[in-house]
């Protein structure tokens, strides 16, 4: 007796269903770990301290406000105790200086954490523009951010971030290996033209404001961000007690563009 094609499919489905088994994942408990996210720009310093959350508990990003946070310009020897703002961040209005060497030290209870970073030269954003690119499935709005590589003789690493109406939208990492005559072009694939087929996380609508920022980073920060984008903790950037996070001293360049789909040219 021969089995028909559809009968074979039904038998296969039944066999697969009979093999189903519920698997309970037993997560190994790891005590919460301190996370420090510190930035020093030409505008000032902002440091947020949180704790990791166990995988079987709801995410908790409540900032910790019981630490002592000190920022020191090791080039001049000047130190400043950071104050807490209304968001729970430790802040300072003293901006960083190019080529100065900075130390961020955090003390909380019996634990202390220290990180260092040299403030690199700033870049300059030359242009930001949208183009429609025809893809097999639809037209896609491609955003190109053009900026200067300030130190073409050395390897440069850059963190390019986009914000949609003030909220984090997308980010890229790029090096000056892609530079031509000291100019770098970074490209983002953003929204499809057919918004009915686009995810809300990436959809752009007429009038949306896109802000682009370009931040030079060192190799350690570049490696850290690459690891984070792959769902890894990345290299340890603090000495002292164990913690996660980063300290970045770097100037930020920014520019904005308003998304008007009817005014975007086809590439």
What does this protein look like?
The protein has a domain at 125-216 and 253-263: Immunoglobulin-like. The strands form 4 sheets. The chain has a 5-stranded mixed sheet, with no helix packed on it. It has a 5-stranded antiparallel sheet with strand order 4-3-7-8-15, with no helix packed on it. With 267 residues, the protein is mostly beta strands. It contains 2 helices and 17 strands. Mean pLDDT is 89; it is low at 1-18. Strand 5 and strand 6 form a beta hairpin. It is globular.
Oligomeric state of this protein: single chain
Topology as a string of helices (H) and strands (E): HEEEEEEEEEEEEEEHEEE
Helical residue percent? under 10%
Indicate the proportion of strand residues: 35-45%
Shape label: globular
The total of beta strands comes to 17
Task: Output the number of helix runs.
Answer: 2
Tell me, rounded to a whole number, the average pLDDT. Answer: 89
| Annotated CATH architecture of the domain at 125-216 and 253-263 | Sandwich
CATH topology of the domain at 125-216 and 253-263: Immunoglobulin-like
Question: Helices and strands: which structural class?
Answer: mainly beta
The strands making up the biggest β-sheet line up spatially as: 5-6-2-1-16
Q: Which stretches are low in confidence, meaning pLDDT under 50 for 5 or more residues running?
A: 1-18
CATH class of the domain at 125-216 and 253-263: Mainly Beta
Main β-sheet: number of strands, strand sense, barrel status?
5 strands, mixed
Rg, rounded, reads 24 Å
End-to-end separation: 61 Å
